[in-house]
Amino acid sequence: KCQAAIQSWAELRGPAGERVGLLYDALCCRPFATALLAGIKTGAEWPTQRNGRFRLRPASALASYSLQELAALEPEALAVEQSNSSIAYARELILKCYRRLEPGEHPELELGWFLTERVRFEHVPALAGYIEYRSAQSAVWAIAVLHRYVCSRANAWSHTLASLSDYLRASCGSERADRGESGDPAPWRCAELLARSVREAMLLGVRVGQLHAALASARDDPAFRPEVFTDAEFRAWCVGLIGSIERAAELLAGRTELLPEADATADRLRQLARPAVERESARLAGTSLGRKSRCHGDLHLGQVLFTGEDFLVMDFEGEPARPLAERRAKCSVLKDVAGMVRSFDYAAAGALRQAA
Known about the structure:
Elements: E1 9-13, E2 19-24, H1 30-42, E3 45-47, E4 53-58, H2 67-71, E5 75-78, E6 84-89, E7 93-98, H3 107-118, E8 127-134, E9 140-148, E10 154-155, H4 156-178, H5 187-215, E11 227-228, H6 231-252, H7 262-284, E12 291-292, E13 304-306, E14 311-313, H8 324-328, H9 334-355
Antiparallel strand pairs: 1-2, 3-4, 4-8, 5-6, 6-7, 7-9, 8-9, 10-13, 11-12, 13-14
């Protein structure tokens, strides 16, 4: 039943070279994908040979589906993920399976449960369930998370890139018309496209602000309660910032085949980084450093879905290469804002490259 969907496999052979089985990705197998969904719906527990168990649990967004309805949803393994594996169930649900596992509370499950079940925040895909593994020693690994499928026009990155490209084409057409050449002679088209992009950016800013307010609303929960930045935390952050800049300089040095001025730029980064950070650190010493709270942690336009009328923020797992403790740490919400501003800058540069 699974053979047509399996892209690759490995033969398992015994001591004498005899074939004893096949090793393949079961997510491509329809019966297995359907069994996962049924297990989440029923709250199944699957024991392992090492005295651990897989715990499958539903959330309220799955309550409206019967087992028969779930069994009828056709699963499709998606090939667009880079750090995870995903299964879409007939544009109703989507299951993300983590490929990088680490024991501890997973931020995507933790934040998804909080936003969906506790504060009922509407501008994220609703959490529908999850799968975790508990060892015999009670250590917990997040294995997969299930969300309601969001029918979107595109992610915000693709949409923004397309909008900017439309504006650049319209602008070039207007310039050609001014010179008496063929093109769109209507300057109002440029103004219309620009105004639409500004409105959408403002709406996106509102949604991100509402997300931050929702995450900071549980004053009775230590995991979500905002806290004051301490001087010690600020000093540690400055040290980490200097280290990040110096590592970036090391990566840049010697790459003259890609950037002729790479070595000179790397040297300048090394010379300026520490004095600049220490100068700003001294300037801010003794001042109010604001509060830290839970935030998205890896926010950019690619982490937002555009429905055509609104935006939904997704992918709360943080940067997969970083430890769970770091991804769950409270920080300034300006980290999310800076990530989004940088993403808009990338989109503008990308649109200009396409138009060149």
